[in-house]
Amino acid sequence: MTSDGRGQTHGDAARDPDALIRRAGASGDPDRDQHFLVDDRVVDRIPTYLPEDTDLSHVLEIGGGPGVLTDRLLDVADRVTVVEQDRTFADHLRREFAEEVEAGRLTVLEGDALEIDLPDFSACVSNLPYGISSEISFRLLPEGKPLVLMFQKEFGERMAAESGTSEYGRLSVSAQHYGDVDVCEIVPREAFDPQPAVQSAIVRIEPRAPDYEVDDEEFFLDFVKALFTQRRKTIRNGIRNTPHISGLSDPDAVVEAADEDVLRKRAGNMAPAEFAELAQLAADVGL
Ligand SMILES: C[S@@+](CC[C@H](N)C(=O)[O-])C[C@H]1O[C@@H](n2cnc3c(N)ncnc32)[C@H](O)[C@@H]1O
């Protein structure tokens, strides 16, 4: 660790994004979710969004590309593992950061982040391939580690949305079940090359032990999904209409046992803790 306590430093200066892309020998292909960060100021800020007391012993990055974020992560972390599916960029990362690879400070895993065995990591910081935002998030969230992730703006805002807003939905409840979710920054299209069609958002997820119990995590997530397919209906009707999604064998028993105030609500007005309490009851009497 350096004197500022934020990990080791490497090299003298941050590598220039344009030079990194040139040395990779390939430009980004939007069809492969390759939108590379070229705005140094944004890249510099990303690691600073990690919660203060984050353990930086082993930071995971999904989708390294030319390595501009990898470079900054090596500045703050003791060790970095980067997963990159595209061989051209995986090879480039190994070449570009050969010293760090040699020193055991950087591991480059070539493969699909949805399929590959992920290492134990202490935090994850990534400008994600947008096409796998949802699936990779739900691989990372249950690990209970701090995450700083770049998403498409609308996706990030839905993840962080509060109950009662139009963006609040299944994604918000499921993500906030694992931690406190904030949008740290909206990033304009111009910060990337090639530019994506829409703006992006940097989102922080700070893990938190839930202040409620969920014994059957899978049922909880299915139950939330089921109720949001009926978001305009009351919870009472939502429970009755969706046993094929929630897996409940006796939805009427759940309706009979649940609190009348809750049954009158709609999914968009239920906080994650209220969903969890209802799911716990539903699992007990209706599964
Ligand atoms: C949005 S770019 C980010 C690149 C770099 N971190 C940056 O910020 O400039 C996403 C990267 O993820 C890679 N990628 C796409 N799908 C992937 C997958 N399923 N698993 C691992 N990497 C993937 C792409 O090749 C690309 O390099």
UniProtKB/TrEMBL annotation:
GO terms for molecular function: methyltransferase activity. GO terms for biological process: methylation. InterPro entries: KsgA/Erm, rRNA_Ade_diMease-like_C, rRNA_Ade_Mease_Trfase_CS, rRNA_Ade_methylase_Trfase_N, rRNA_adenine_dimethylase, SAM-dependent_MTases_sf. SUPFAM superfamilies: S-adenosyl-L-methionine-dependent methyltransferases (SSF53335). The keyword S-adenosyl-L-methionine applies. It is an enzyme of class 2 (transferase). PROSITE patterns: RRNA_A_DIMETH (PS01131), SAM_RNA_A_N6_MT (PS51689). Residues 42-209 form the Ribosomal RNA adenine methylase transferase N-terminal domain. Residues 1-33 are annotated as: Disordered. It holds the Pfam family RrnaAD. The keyword DNA damage does not apply. Transmembrane segments: none annotated. Residues 7-21 have a biased composition (Basic and acidic residues). Belongs to the class I-like SAM-binding methyltransferase superfamily. rRNA adenine N(6)-methyltransferase family. RsmA subfamily. Specifically dimethylates two adjacent adenosines in the loop of a conserved hairpin near the 3'-end of 16S rRNA in the 30S particle. May play a critical role in biogenesis of 30S subunits. This is Probable ribosomal RNA small subunit methyltransferase A. It comes from Haloferax larsenii.
